[in-house]
Write a structure and sequence with these properties.
Layout (H helix, E strand, L loop, with lengths): L6 E8 L2 E11 L8 E9 L8 H16 L3 E4 L6 H7 L16
Parallel strand pairs: 3-4
Antiparallel strand pairs: 1-2, 2-3
């Protein structure tokens, strides 16, 4: 990855292997003075799900965002992704927004 690119990845390494990642980017916002951070993808290898790696990745990203002074951290997930939502709901309640995505 180009170090100058706004897209970054945090890695979860277990037993010397990458077992998960959090891909994120920060960007300006018209709603707050500082930047926002968008968690584009959080993934944990199925063989180690439930071991706390997803929580560790989120906690790490929250710490990074606070240290950088970013105003908000946000992400999307499918409404039926119950396993991920069980984790996410421990951080913050859904804000009720629905995503629209147009492929161009």
């Amino acid at each position: 990855m180009d170090p100058a690119a706004p897209v970054k990845a945090r890695l979860a390494i277990l037993d010397g292997k990458v077992r998960g990642f959090a891909i994120h980017l920060h960007h300006p916002s018209t709603w707050v003075v500082t930047e926002d951070c968008y968690l584009e993808d959080l993934y944990v290898d199925e063989s180690v799900r439930g071991a706390g790696l997803g929580r560790a990745l989120l906690d790490d990203l929250v710490s990074l965002a606070r240290a950088k002074g970013w105003a908000r951290l946000y992400w999307h997930t499918n409404h039926d992704n119950t396993r991920a939502r069980a984790l996410y709901d421990q951080y913050v309640a859904s804000d009720g927004h629905i995503r629209y995505r147009m492929t161009l």
